[in-house]
Amino acid sequence: MTALRRFNESAYRDGVTKSGDLFARALGKIPGGVNSPVRAFRGVGGEPFFVERVNGPRIWTVDGVELIDYVGSWGPAILGHAPPVVTDAVRAAALHGTSFGIPNPLEVEMAELICAWMPAIEKVRMVNSGTEATMSCLRLARGFTKRDKIIKFAGCYHGHADSLLVKAGSGALTHGQPDSAGVPRAVADETIVLPFNNIEAVRAAFRENKDQIAAVILEAIPANAGLFFPREGFLHQLQEECTRNGALLIFDEVMTGFRVARGGAQQLYGIRPDLTALGKVVGGGLPVGAFGGRAEIVGQLSPDGPVYQAGTLSGNPLAMAAGLAQLRELERIDGWKLLEDLGAKLESRLADAISGKELIFHRIGSMFCLFFASGPIFDLESAQYSDTKKFAQFFHSCLEGGLYFPPSQFETAFISTAHSDEDIDQTARVVCEALIKL
Ligand code: HOZ
């Protein structure tokens, strides 16, 4: 890779950059200069850069800096950026119109594909974001069970709906605001927050709130407070507790769905959740989410049932075309095997640099995260032992070396099928150098 320019060139130190100018203008008109807080670099210091174009595993900034990207648009870009199968599908669909607001055949194809790949989803509805998907799962669970309370886990992030912005991960955690202002107390009070991987806490919550809990929602593989994993048996125990107590189990697979395996985390762990929320990969880079599950529950949605949910752009033909093209290509190339091989290669290249240090490398397939701690890390509290100052130094060293990782300790990096073996070698070299400099 040739870095046309690097972040440590004098022009960047002096702030005379197109990105700098754009950010100054953005600050005047956009809160924080960004349209989503995770982009703001506040967790690592400095200013975000602006991007002109992306292709495969690479991004080019407006100042001509070339970077190998491990953010992947925060998850959707599993085939890399602008894969021709997706851009061709979007172009072809756009020629037939960008939005109908009337059923279109691609929605049916998408619903059939999702239900085939995730058998726990017997019926599915398309929405426009992961937030909409999780929010709609909660309403559906409350409508179905006729109960109000939900259990979530500290550090899990399920988008920015009111009930879920309590001890949330991702940008909320990065910016030290895991409980958002503006969420009515009465709403937050219906959310019971527990430590991840602690089944005794779940049992106690069910005892103390008998017949009041509608659902337990979780990221089966939490990826918004760094990346950590469910302990052996935890997910099955959760399912047993939900069944015993008449509550629904909701898997938020916005990050893991169609990424960690064709059938997501639920396939890997052999669990059939009652409801599943999807986003990111399913949309091929367009704004898409989906939620679904047992037909008996999803059948409560309007117009069949009393739970209302709607959307002008839901099932949008461009978005369906992009998502279908991406998913079918992933299957054609056996993308999950490729991603595992690339991830394993990166992990093995980093092993020596990490072993024996206060560093923990967590990876599942193409998702990974480096903690600056001695571990073990299995919940929000243990993740917060990571040294975020060291992470910030590491992030900037890598950026100068031509790598773009998520600008926060409390996010997860993504490999795409477009990353080559050479990209992984180069990444490992830069990461090892960055670790030596700490
Ligand atoms: N859900 C993304 C990963 N934490 C963040 C996307 C965003 O908030 O912009």
Structural account:
The radius of gyration is 21 Å and the shape is globular. It has a seven-stranded mixed sheet, with helices on both faces. The chain has a four-stranded mixed sheet with strand order 1-2-3-13. A three-stranded antiparallel sheet has the order 11-12-14, with helices on one face. The chain contains 16 helices and 14 strands. Helix 8 runs parallel beside helix 9 and helix 13 packs parallel to helix 16. The protein folds into two domains: 184 residues, Aspartate Aminotransferase, domain 1 (Alpha-Beta Complex), CATH 3.90.1150.10; 248 residues, 3-Layer(aba) Sandwich (Aspartate Aminotransferase, domain 2), CATH 3.40.640.10. Bound molecules: (4S)-4,5-diaminopentanoic acid. The site of (4S)-4,5-diaminopentanoic acid has 8 residues, from loops.
Summary tags:
single chain, 438 residues, alpha/beta, Aspartate Aminotransferase, domain 1, Aspartate Aminotransferase, domain 2, 2 domains, seven-stranded mixed beta sheet, four-stranded mixed beta sheet, binds (4S)-4,5-diaminopentanoic acid
Q: Which architecture of the largest domain would the CATH scheme give at its second level?
A: 3-Layer(aba) Sandwich
Helix content: 25-40%
CATH class of the largest domain: Alpha Beta
Given the helix and strand composition, which structural class is it? alpha/beta
Radius of gyration: 21 Å
Assign the CATH superfamily of the largest domain.
Type I PLP-dependent aspartate aminotransferase-like (Major domain)
Question: Any idea what the shape is?
Answer: globular
Characterize the main sheet.
Answer: 7 strands, mixed
The tally of domains stands at 2
At the fold tier of CATH, the topology name of the largest domain is Aspartate Aminotransferase, domain 2
Indicate the low-confidence ranges by residue numbers. Answer: none
Bound molecules: (4S)-4,5-diaminopentanoic acid
What's the pLDDT, averaged over the residues? Answer: 95
Give the beta-strand count.
Answer: 14
User: Helical segment tally?
Assistant: 16
